[in-house]
Amino acid sequence: MKKSLLYLFMLVCSVSIFMSCSDDDDEVKYPIDTELAGGYVGNLSVNVDGNQMGTTENQKITISQSNKGTNQIALSLKNFTFLVNVGDIEVDPCTVKAIDSGYAFEGQQNLDLVQPLGNCPVSISGTVKGSNINIEIGVKVGAPLNQNVKATFVGRKLTGSESSEAKITSFIIDDEAVVEQPVINEEAGTIVFAVNEEVESLKFTPIIEISEGATITPASGVAQDFSNNKKVTYTVTAEDGTVKVYTAFVEGTRKVLKYSFEDWKEGSKNDELLPKDLWAGSAAGAGILGGTLLRKETREDGTYAAKLITFEYPNELNSLVPKITAGSIFIGKFDMMPALQGDRLSCTKFGLDAETVSLGGKPLRFKGVYKYESGSNYLDASNYEDVKPVDIKDKGQIQAVLYKVQTGEDGKEIVLTGHDVNTSELRVAVANIIVEDIKEYTPFNIEFEYLQEYDRNAKYKFAIVYSSSKDYERLKQLLDAGNEVLVFIDGKPSFLRRTAFLVYRTNRRTVYTLSSEDSFRDFCEEEKISFPEPPIFT
Q: Final residue of a domain: which of 426, 445, 470?
């Protein structure tokens, strides 16, 4: 009997060992890490109780190896949305099995979703064949909604080389009602702008640029309603499915001060822009010499523009008469008396009290339209005894200046003139543009550059200056006086100095704004001005 039992025990052991070996041979470990795991991007369509709720493009789903079993995966869908964003769908594990040309997987799990959905049974089933994936997601929503949600995902596996950048790089609203263009705050995910306080409609059409390879919803060029503090949500999806959400809205309103060119007094040689107590110009002086410097011009839309003309005095030289006079209009006053004493730059008195011109606060932007045609030849008339042509093209200038009210030694208020409108330390803010040849009316929109802090309690004068000819006479005066001049050429800073002997003095520095580098280089060479940024000798 003992011998029989021993054999029986050995038989059981043999069978057990055999069966164990048989299980190892039948179990196949699927290559989840190499063939299934990774990111997938595609379209997610949502159906609720048989009703199609829409499709989300460039949705991203992630598959990874589950730590709960060998042939099991974890599936993750971030920010699942139907009617509302219900949260993340993460089912772990889903069991994998091999099928023809790929793999199938399925799993189910109870997930806590946002209210009022609550705890919901979620089922997952899908297939992966090559780089293509198809998934069905079922969510059974209980009371009080009692809905059956079915989501279908059809997509492709990402290679890993796709960009993950999901940014709005530019957001522009080309509308006169927008007085401050949208500012993008990446960290906060906000896009804010300001509008004219008098505007009625806040329906705008943003023009949007985004990261290469990304998509955006709503699309660029689609009108949006920003009225009644409405916020518009923009969703940017990167090439690899990464999502960035921005919220665009009106931050506030601004008062817009408008100056009209609609009122004129017509004349034989020159027209006069009204009102006279606001606008002044060079035509008041040079016009008596027979020159035409200012004309009213009718635009295609029936409104008026001011046409400024540079005048060349055709007769023999006269110390009281400038050879070249740029057509100009400006907020301020024109006084002929300084010219009788040989000081023509003091004839232009730029600026009126801010209250007088209805400027009730801190100016932010300077907007308008212009067109420009340069003359056939450029004359350098800075040396009255030696007027000579210069091989450069003339340019016009448009600028606005805000400066502090201050009393001089004579007890009178200081008013900036042609001598110091570009250099005075009283200037608080400037907006400046050099205009070149352009045949059609072109808008400009310049942000004020603040040279010092704006004080709401201080008194200011404000000037707008339009000139048909950008003149370099003042610059040469500064350089000849031994000043080092810091210029901004196309927005880039550079130092100018005379290269003549013993003129490298840097104790006085002046800021000046000039035209583009290409047109200015010839002028500097002609006048022996170092350009750009030579070494400093002391």
A: 470
